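Give me the fold.
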Amino acid sequence: MNARRGKKDEFEIIWVSRCRDVDSFGQYFTHMKWLALPPQEAMGQRGQYLGEKFKVKSIPTLVLLDEIGNVITLDGRNKIPMDKAGVGFPWRSPMSVLVSTLFPRSLRLLVKSQIAGVLEKAKAVLGGAARGAAAR
C-alpha cells in the first residue's frame, strides 16, 4: 500500500505510457522517479480505456485526480507552466472545493458508488431498448 496515502498536500504520479513498444517505454522510464503502469497494460486495452476516459488528445497529457478518482483537471500539462509557484494547486474548480469542504470523503465515495450503479442500470435499460428498436 502507498505509504503516503492520506497525507495532506501530497500526491502520487503514475505514468501511463502510450509508447508503441517496450524498448521505448524503458528508455523513458529510466529517467523517471515515479510509478508506471506496466507497459503491456499501458499499450493494451487498459491504456486505451484510460486515454478515452480522460479524453487524451495529445502527448504528454497530465490528468489530476482526487483521492476518490474524480477529475480535478484534464489540463495539468498547461496548468503547471501557468502557475509555476503552485499558488492555485491543485487547480480545482470552485465547486469541487466547496463539495470537498462540505462533505466528508466517506459520503462522497458513497454517492459516487450509487451514481455509478444507477448509470450502469440506465445504460443496460437504454441498450436493451435500442437493440429492441433495431430488431423491429
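Residues 51 and 58 are 10 Å apart (CA to CA).
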